[in-house]
Specification:
Layout: H1 2-33, E1 40-44, H2 60-65, E2 73-75, E3 81-83, E4 86-91, E5 97-102, H3 116-129, E6 139-145, E7 148-153, H4 160-163, H5 174-178, H6 183-186, E8 194-199, E9 203-208, E10 221-225, H7 230-239, E11 244-246, H8 250-257, E12 262-268, E13 271-277, H9 286-294, H10 298-305, E14 310-312, H11 336-345, E15 358-359, E16 362-363, E17 365-370, H12 376-391, E18 394-399, H13 405-411, E19 416-422, H14 430-437, H15 455-466, H16 470-487, E20 490-503, E21 506-507, E22 524-525
Parallel strand pairs: 1-10, 1-11, 17-18, 17-19
Antiparallel strand pairs: 2-3, 4-5, 5-7, 6-7, 8-9, 9-10, 11-20, 12-20, 13-19, 13-20, 14-20, 15-16, 21-22
Helix pairs in contact: 9-11, 14-15, 15-16
């Protein structure tokens, strides 16, 4: 009887251990096994769009990021322009007429064929609805000939395919809108692997486009919650509430690198964090402006406060792009004693002992407009505020919703206005430099609401607009940057890295330099 009991106990113990071991094994395996239903995937993002109307504000970025819309061309991981809806293109000998051959395979999500005529109507719609379109290029004629789209421009433009890769020019089925579809509320009819099921700013749901023209669509449904706080986004990923997510913060990113469940794809981005400076207010005085910039300890901001996840700012274009970063000279490098001297030379002194310099009975105060959907922006603003207090300038930080930023920039409604901006959204930095600093003559360049104007800079931009030679373009862009630095045209704070992190049950999750391509047809369950 005792032997039977012992034998039973031994067997029972063995069974418990075996079950436990199996549980551990199953648990280990489940880390990367993913959900039971792999037809649904959840993607954690930060979203600034109120609607999915691709011509409104910069909402086309979100339409493309969510896999809903595509353009005639796209950029690869090295920023080379590649065919997409257009399978090829050519330019005439006089460089005025571009011919794009539209893919015969391409279809809209409603099943309609993407014809050259449909593409023509979509591009015309973008020009009609958003004045920003004409800041890329102007056309004198646009027509369809079979599957060829023929665009004749008012002057030679070297980069029309790159311009048309911008999300503003996502190709939509205009006939669907004419039939009553509200693109803003219901989402556009695009050509991407997914189509809109529902959308609010807080959460989008997209579903497989059964008419997708460029391969299989791996997921039946993609749920896309907007999680603005990067720490909360990381927690959602760790808890399994989302399966992949963009732009995880520095501390959490390191944790995920060391967790076998996750894959991290981090790259040096094409972005610059900068503060546009209004030249029409108190910072219009070049000495005050130089004092302000020279008083900012950008090395400390990026290496200490942001833990080395950003590179210290100096020039308009980040060092990840080959436009002479190391050779550019910053005349307003960090030197707070110089800042104090410049303020005194400009007539600003602390006459009442309150810690702030004043002139004619008024303190030197500036209004610094920021938005909080990117974690680093208030950190930069508060660091600048602290440094300015040391040299006697009072900085008042005003936090606004992202969707106000574009209008405030156009209106010049700021002393400083922060931006985290892609500097090569069309394949090179020409458009970025033009939008922010080319003289806004007769409203031709509305994005420059700062009042900055320099005839030498404008002349370089005019040359760049028609220069096809890559090496000459590079030299012109380097020269343009040095002019901006010499003028103290803006405060260049830093250059971020960008990342996307996924649970390893997924594969082909890649962060591209352009920041447009998040949810792609290539993301699918790992085998």
């Amino acid at each position: 009887m005792k032997q039977s009991w012992k034998k039973w106990l031994r067997n029972a113990t063995f069974c418990v251990m075996a079950v436990a071991a199996l549980g551990v094994i199953a648990g280990c395996g489940s880390d990367n096994a993913g959900p039971a239903d792999k037809s649904v995937v959840k993607f954690g993002v930060t979203n600034f769009a109120d609607t999915l109307e691709p011509t409104q504000n910069y909402f086309g970025w979100v339409v493309m990021r969510y896999g809903i819309g595509e353009t005639l061309a796209k950029f690869d991981e090295k920023m080379n322009t590649q065919p997409w809806l257009a399978e090829s293109w050519s330019v005439s000998a006089d460089k005025l007429t571009w011919t794009f051959k539209i893919s015969d395979k391409a279809k809209f999500s409603n099943g309609n064929k993407v014809t050259a005529e449909a593409v023509k109507e979509s591009i015309e719609r973008a020009f009609e609805k958003n004045k920003r379109a004409a800041t890329f290029f102007k056309y004198t004629d646009i027509k369809a000939d079979g599957q060829n789209l023929i665009i004749t421009t008012d002057k030679p433009y070297p980069n029309v395919p790159g311009f048309l890769a911008d999300p503003l020019f996502i190709i939509v089925d205009v006939s669907a809108e004419k039939a009553g579809r509200d693109f803003a509320k219901e989402g556009p009819i695009g050509t991407g692997p997914y189509k809109v099921k529902s959308f609010t700013k807080e959460k989008a749901v997209v579903e497989a486009n059964e008419n997708y023209w460029d391969g299989e669509v791996p997921f039946k449904t993609v749920e896309i919650p907007s999680i603005d706080d990067p720490t909360t986004r990381a927690l959602a990923l760790q808890n399994g509430d989302v399966d992949f997510a963009v732009n995880i913060g520095a501390g959490d990113l390191e944790t995920m690198r060391n967790d076998s469940k996750f894959k991290v794809d981090e790259i040096a981005s094409l972005r610059t964090v900068l503060a546009r400076i209004n030249q029409k207010g108190v910072l219009g005085d070049e000495k005050v402006r130089a004092a302000f910039i020279s008083g900012t300890d950008r090395k400390s901001y990026n290496e200490v406060l942001l833990k080395g996840t950003f590179i210290p700012g100096k020039a308009p274009i980040p060092p990840s792009l080959d436009y002479g970063f190391d050779g550019l000279k910053d005349p307003n490098a960090y030197n707070p004693e110089r800042s104090k001297q410049l303020l005194a030379e400009a007539g600003w002194k602390d006459t009442d002992g309150d810690g702030f310099v004043d002139k004619d009975g008024k303190n030197l105060e500036v209004r610094f407009v920021v938005y909080n959907s990117r974690q680093e922006l208030p950190i930069y603003a508060e660091a600048v505020q602290s440094d300015m207090k040391k040299i006697g300038i009072k900085v008042n930080i005003e936090s606004v919703d992202y969707n106000l930023i574009d209008k405030m920039g156009i209106d010049g409604d700021y002393d400083l206005l922060i931006s985290n901006i892609v500097t090569a959204n069309t394949g090179d930095p020409e458009i970025f430099l033009k939008w922010y600093w080319k003289t806004n003559l007769n409203g031709e360049n509305p994005q420059n609401g700062s009042g900055y104007s320099n005839p030498k800079f404008d002349a370089i931009m005019d040359q760049l607009a028609v220069e096809f030679d890559k090496s000459k373009r590079q030299s012109l862009i380097i020269e343009a940057q040095q002019i901006l630095l010499n003028d103290g045209a803006a405060l260049f704070l830093g250059y971020p890295k960008t990342n996307i992190v996924n649970n390893k049950w997924l594969t082909n999750v890649v962060m591209y330099p352009t920041d447009y391509y998040w949810l792609t047809k290539d993301i699918k369950p790992a085998k």
